[in-house]
């Protein structure tokens, strides 16, 4: 960074974990998602170490919606992570990945009666989102003689606006305390924890300090009044990755707080709150984005270049908003995958879709890419492989590079057979 702006990063990226980008696309096609198992394990172990050195009892739960490819989930589970799910579909996926029911956290506003019964029978941690769910669960537990293990999700003012108050029970207006009281007074529900998830891509460690303090206060009050300490405090996810948000002046790598800062803020509050040593709650974290974003890459190829009516250079890629949903929020770092000339030009990078909003980067300074040149998009591991759209083209394959640098397809590219599997043509339209 100097008075003229920041330098353009044009160093070609020819390898990912020592596997040649060119050979990956030759073998598996373009566009192509690539995930580094090494990087996932590094991220996980790093976050685990940072929290465990500051607080004695820590448990991570992998946020399925961030990336629920089974191979990815299983890496996290092998590392010791529980599962955090927000739908019946994700719940089934976690069971299928061998996670025992008692290590699945069931969040979100959408749990069917069947989901609630299954989760109760499996001893899962049901995080209640609203009164309707609380009353339903009380009724189901009476009808079916269940003893659900529950927590409530709490929302609050952490100084971040707009407030995330559509999930859970509000702290400031007394709703959260009211819900806790009802649970404690119910016959069948066992209150095991208190939960919040205050937002995503959070840039303020202090917001977590406020959240931790509020949850501790609820736990403390419950103990004082009812003589029972909850087993855990779950502070959700929301830590940022090092991506650069749109409109930011400086790259994310220079501005985003480190996990250490969040861990300091959280552990200082809980350790200092005054719980007795043997009553210290387990600290659960549901970090998604921060643990996977930089383990994911998207490889792609230039389809064409052209000049727009105002003279600007435009480059059309074979991937767009359909596979790279996060280009709505991030200025993704994009590197050429081969050595190109020394001359740079500012360009717009478009995707292949026949719609005007299909823009990958509104403005990027890159060497003069030509048809057939290849690029690497960095830090795309979070949310893209779950929020991707099947629209106009097939969704690309995902390849995993394992810790020995062997490659494995972990999701095939879609094809016509897959796409039409669920369709049905009525008899009268067949001839
Ligand atoms: C999405 C989500 C997470 C993960 O959030 P990140 O911002 O990716 O860390 C954790 N908990 C809940 C309840 C969520 O909805």
Description:
Helices cover 30% and strands 23% of the residues. It has 431 residues and is α/β, with parallel strands linked by helices. It has 2 domains: 15-35 and 294-420, Lyase, Ornithine Decarboxylase, Chain A, domain 1; 107-287, Alpha-Beta Barrel (TIM Barrel). The strands form 3 sheets. Strands 3, 13, 14, 15, 16, 17, 18, 19 and 20 form a 9-stranded mixed sheet that branches. Strand 7, helix 6 and strand 8 (149-155) form a beta-alpha-beta unit. Helix 5 crosses helix 6. It is globular, with a radius of gyration of 24 Å. The mean pLDDT is 95. Pyridoxal-5'-phosphate binds at residues 63, 65-66, 84, 86, 107, 197, 200, 236-239, 286-289, 382.
Summarize the topology.
Layout: E1 15-16, E2 19-20, H1 21-28, E3 32-36, H2 37-52, E4 58-63, H3 70-78, E5 82-85, H4 88-96, E6 104-106, H5 113-121, E7 125-128, H6 131-144, E8 149-155, E9 169-170, H7 175-185, E10 190-195, H8 205-226, E11 232-234, H9 252-255, H10 259-272, E12 282-285, H11 289-292, E13 296-307, E14 313-317, E15 334-336, E16 344-350, E17 359-367, E18 374-377, H12 384-387, E19 397-401, E20 407-411, H13 416-420
Parallel strand pairs: 3-19, 4-5, 4-12, 5-6, 6-7, 7-8, 8-9, 8-10, 10-11, 11-12, 14-16
Antiparallel strand pairs: 1-2, 3-13, 13-14, 13-18, 15-18, 16-17, 19-20
Number of alpha- plus pi-helical segments: 13
**What is the CATH architecture term of the largest domain?**
Alpha-Beta Barrel
* Beta strand count: 20
CATH superfamily membership of the largest domain? Alanine racemase
Domain count: the total is 2
Instruction: Estimate the global geometry from the Cα principal axes.
Output: globular
**Which oligomerization state do the chains in this entry correspond to?**
single chain
Distance between the termini: 66 Å
Question: Helicity, in percent?
Answer: 25-40%
Beta-strand portion reads 15-25%
Low-confidence stretches: none
Using the coordinates above, name the CATH class of the largest domain: Alpha Beta
Q: Which hetero ligands occur in this complex?
A: pyridoxal-5'-phosphate
Instruction: Tell me the major beta sheet.
Output: 9 strands, mixed
């Amino acid at each position: 960074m100097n008075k003229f702006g920041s330098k353009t990063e044009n160093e070609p990226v020819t390898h990912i974990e020592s596997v040649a980008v060119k050979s990956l696309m030759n073998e598996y096609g373009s566009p192509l998602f690539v995930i580094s198992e090494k990087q996932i394990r590094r991220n996980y172990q790093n976050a685990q170490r940072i929290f465990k050195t500051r607080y004695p009892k820590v448990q991570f739960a992998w946020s399925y919606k961030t990336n629920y490819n089974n191979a990815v989930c299983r890496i996290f589970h092998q590392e010791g992570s529980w599962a955090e799910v927000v739908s019946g579909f994700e719940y089934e996926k976690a069971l299928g990945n061998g996670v025992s029911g008692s290590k699945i956290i069931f969040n979100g506003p959408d749990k069917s009666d069947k989901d609630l019964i299954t989760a109760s029978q499996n001893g899962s941690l049901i995080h209640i989102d609203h009164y309707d769910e609380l009353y339903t669960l009380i009724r189901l537990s009476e009808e079916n003689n269940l003893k659900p293990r529950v927590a409530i999700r709490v929302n609050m003012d952490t100084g971040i606006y707009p407030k995330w108050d559509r999930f859970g029970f509000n702290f400031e207006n007394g709703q959260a305390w009211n819900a806790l009281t009802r649970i404690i007074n119910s016959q069948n529900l066992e209150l095991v924890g208190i939960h919040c998830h205050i937002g995503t891509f959070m840039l303020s460690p202090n917001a977590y300090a406020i959240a931790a303090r509020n949850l501790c206060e609820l736990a403390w009050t419950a103990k004082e009044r009812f003589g029972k300490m909850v087993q855990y405090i779950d502070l959700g996810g929301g830590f940022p990755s090092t991506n650069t948000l749109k409109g930011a002046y400086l790259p994310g790598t220079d501005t985003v707080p480190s996990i250490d800062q969040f861990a300091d803020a959280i552990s200082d509050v809980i350790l200092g709150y005054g719980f007795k040593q043997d009553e210290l709650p387990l600290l659960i974290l549901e970090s998604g984005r921060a643990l996977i974003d930089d383990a994911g890459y998207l490889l792609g190829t230039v389809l064409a270049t052209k000049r727009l009516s105002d003279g600007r250079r435009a480059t059309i890629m074979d991937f767009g908003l359909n596979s790279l949903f996060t280009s709505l929020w991030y200025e993704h770092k994009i590197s050429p995958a081969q050595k190109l000339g020394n001359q740079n030009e500012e360009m717009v990078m478009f995707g292949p879709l026949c719609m005007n909003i299909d823009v990958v980067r509104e403005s990027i300074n890159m060497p003069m890419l030509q048809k057939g040149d290849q690029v690497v998009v960095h830090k795309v591991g979070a949310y893209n492989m779950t929020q991707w759209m099947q629209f106009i083209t097939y969704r690309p394959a995902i390849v995993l590079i394992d810790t020995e640098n062997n490659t494995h397809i972990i999701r095939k590219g879609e094809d016509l057979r897959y796409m039409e599997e669920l369709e049905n043509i009525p008899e009268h339209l067949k001839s």
